[in-house]
Amino acid sequence: MSRTYVAGVGMIPFATPRTAEPYDVMAPAAVRAALADAGVELADVQQAYAGYVYGDSTSGQRALYRVGTTGIPVVNVNNNCSTGSSALFLARQAVASGAADCVLAFGFEQMERGALAIKWPDRPSPFVDFMAIAEERNGASEAPFAAQLFGGAGAEYAERYGVAPETFAKVAVKARNHAANNPFAVFRDPVTVEQVLTSPQIFGPLTRLQCCPPTCGAAAAIIVSEEFARARGLRTTVAIAAQAMTTDGAATFDGSLMNLVGADMSRRAADQVYEAAGVAPGDVRVVELHDCFTANEILSYESLRLTPDGTAEKFIEDGDNTYGGAVVTNPSGGLLSKGHPLGATGLAQCAELSWQLRGEAGARQVDGASLALQHNIGLGGAAVVTLYERGDR
């Protein structure tokens, strides 16, 4: 497998469903930005992987055709909230295997207002087994299904380790503080712990300000081989050092709500990445992780081995999750504040970490960042963990 590079990235400012443009306007804008950032033309791209969840089949073609029609393979990808990273995973595999030298991964989402809901109630849901376990533990609820799963996992963690509600709220406060410096983020105004805790209760420890908003947006990345980059004089500043995708294993359904929402799945992916790259979790100074709810950010600290099991509360209280601490988590503001357009999220994370390693993150810049970790999960399920390292130029 040959070495792969992120030659260019692009994204548009994320927006609420009420203010967003259609997907076939958003996605082409992100693709054009990534092509320009890389210094290549669409004609140079040999394959494309388009990630989205809410759209008809071949929406990826519709979006890309607004940029140009070059006849290349276009593969549409749908893996729930990990859709963008799944497209990136496939693009990286295509280049690393030698099947292509220049590949486009792009993701977009034109979301509806309100919480995520099951779109096809006339057939078995992929979440049947998940909700059966959640309802057995927590009872039936009218809360949105994702909030039931992640809120239940947060309640399990709090009970197991004696974590106070304020700890969860502090994650949301941190997200807003980071997003204040991100012009692409939806929510940039600061909030206090009190405001977070007194916002409407959703499920378990989760209040409304601890849940990511429905968001529209698009992001893209150009993945190239080393040979292609050097032949074209492209930047090789950001390399993909290792990447892993895992799906649910037996532990997912062992009765733990924490594993039900991907804690075990994420840990297995992270461990594969650390081993493949030959690095330790403590070597990483910046992380974009999947904070769809504050509860999942707390679980992810431990799944990614940024802090030992049961120590997330101390990790937060000591400020080790932000600037001046051990590792800056979600400098972009994360899903909680930047927003979470499902198909675009993983590629927006890629863009943020590429800017960090290139020293182009502005007021969000993490000093001395030479390794960057990306974590993106989708229920049902898939976890994608990617480690980027600073290249030579």
Q: What value does the average pLDDT take?
A: 96
Biggest beta sheet attributes: 10 strands, mixed
How do the strands line up in the largest sheet?
Answer: 3-2-4-7-1-8-12-11-9-10
Number of helices: 14
Calculate the terminal CA-CA distance, rounded to whole Å: 22 Å
Radius of gyration: 19 Å
Please state roughly what percent of the residues sit in beta strands, choosing from under 5%, 5-15%, 15-25%, 25-35%, 35-45% or over 45%: 15-25%
Please give the number of β-strands: 12
Low-confidence stretches: none
* Order of helical and strand elements: EHEHEHEHHHHEEEHEHHEHHEHHEE
Query: What general form does the structure show?
Result: globular
Helix amount: 25-40%
Structural class: alpha/beta
Describe the 3D structure.
- With 393 residues, this protein is an alpha/beta fold.
- The protein is built from 14 helices and 12 strands.
- Strands 3-2-4-7-1-8-12-11-9-10 form a 10-stranded mixed β-sheet, with helices on both faces. It has a two-stranded antiparallel ribbon with strand order 5-6.
- Strand 11 and strand 12 form a beta hairpin.
- The longest helix is centred in the middle third of the chain and has 17 residues, at 145-161.
- The radius of gyration is 19 Å and the shape is globular.
- 56% of the residues are buried.
Task: Tell me briefly what this model is.
With 393 residues, this protein is an alpha/beta fold. It has helices at residues 23-38, 59-65, 83-96, 128-138, 145-161, 165-179, 193-198, 226-232, 257-260, 263-277, 294-303, 312-317, 334-337, 342-358, and strands spanning 4-11, 47-51, 74-77, 102-109, 201-203, 206-207, 217-225, 238-246, 286-288, 328-329, 371-378, 382-390.
